[in-house]
Amino acid sequence: MGCRDKPGNDKWGSGHGENKVKTVITSLQNPTIKLIRSLAEKKYRQQAGLFVAEGEKVLARARAEGWQPDYLVSTGHMESWGTAQRIVVNDKVIASLTAQKNAPSAIGVFKQRWLAKAEPRGLWLALENLRDPGNLGTIIRTADAVAASGVILAGQSCDPWATDCVRATMGSIFGVPLLRMDTPTLIELCRGWPGEVAGTHVQATEDYRRRYASPTLLAMGSEASGLSDDLAAACPVLVGIPMRGAVESLNVAVAAALVLFEVRRHEGPAAAARPS
Q1: 107 near 98, Cβ under 8 Å?
Q2: Predicted TM-score of the model (pTM)
Q3: Which terminal residue of the chain has fewer beta carbons within 10 Å of its beta carbon, N or C?
Q4: Could you give the angle at the alpha carbon of 121 between the alpha carbons of 118 and 122, nearest 5°?
């Protein structure tokens, strides 16, 4: 039948003193398990509007940021979390829900969140046509570290809700607001931005080590092609990272970290708090 009853106390710690028998799912054909497994593919994530986050530390960050999961999957004890459907599975089933060699003990399924617009305050990072989910996840984590107001994904940028990206954020996916738009819309945003707009560019003549006016909008392109010509033209300031060696440019996640922390370096400790 693909499930079995596990006697004893409620493994999920309902918080109401109940002593219930929980059903342990052992079948990969369970409809909810099939749904969660399908979220490994972008088209199913888009259809369902859901994504998967793995590991107790990551889920703790989600809880701290006020996120509410639709499903909680675990092989052991986990406290109740709002209205989340709590699912107990065996090791085989939870291993099927992750690409990691060592399966996490807990997995959460959440609704995707997108901001409607970028409020011109603080520090924003816009990424055009960034295609690598690992790099995107690392950049989101760095944006979290500098308390950025949000990250804008423009053009053909990859899906931030992909498992590889979510994993690379180490939980920061729950702390950094995300906004998606096409490149023409980003260009209009740059033109109307009330603070400073700066783009990184391989042919820039201005060093990135400078003071940036607030609110700041940084625009970066992919490693392969950089900013498009139209977006670069919409940036009043183009900055570059000087290379002493033979390489033309850095990994985009490394470059993003350097520029983001340079913006914050001139602002002092007060910049550490993200606007509410």
Answers
A1: yes
A2: 0.89
A3: C
A4: 110
Three-state secondary structure readout of the chain = CCEEEECCCCCCCCCCCCCCCEEEECCCCCHHHHHHHHCCCHHHHHHHCEEEEECHHHHHHHHHCCCCCCEEEECCCCCCCCCCEEEEECHHHHHHCCCCCCCCCEEEEEECCCCCCCCCCCEEEEEECCCCHHHHHHHHHHHHHCCCCEEEEECCCCCCCCHHHHHHHCCHHHCCCEEEECHHHHHHHHHHCCCEEEEECCCCCEECCCCCCCCEEEEECECCCECCHHHHHCCCEEEECCCCCCCCCCCHHHHHHHHHHHHHHCCCHHHHCCCC
CA pair distance 260, 125, nearest whole angstrom: 8
Query: CA 108, CA 110: separation in Å to the nearest integer?
Result: 6
For the segment 113-122, what is each residue's pLDDT rounded down to a tens digit? 999 999 999 9
Angstrom distances, CA of residue 24 to CA of 1, 11, 90, 110: 11, 10, 7, 21
Q: In the numeric block, which tokens belong to residue 59?
A: 């889920």
Residue written as tokens 């499903």? Answer: 71
With 0-12 CB in 10 A as exposed, 13-18 as middle and 19+ as buried, what is 223? middle
- Cα separation, 123 vs 112, whole angstroms: 22
**How many angstroms separate the Cα of 158 from the Cα of each of 141, 164, 176?**
16, 11, 16
Tokens at residue 82, please? 């709002």
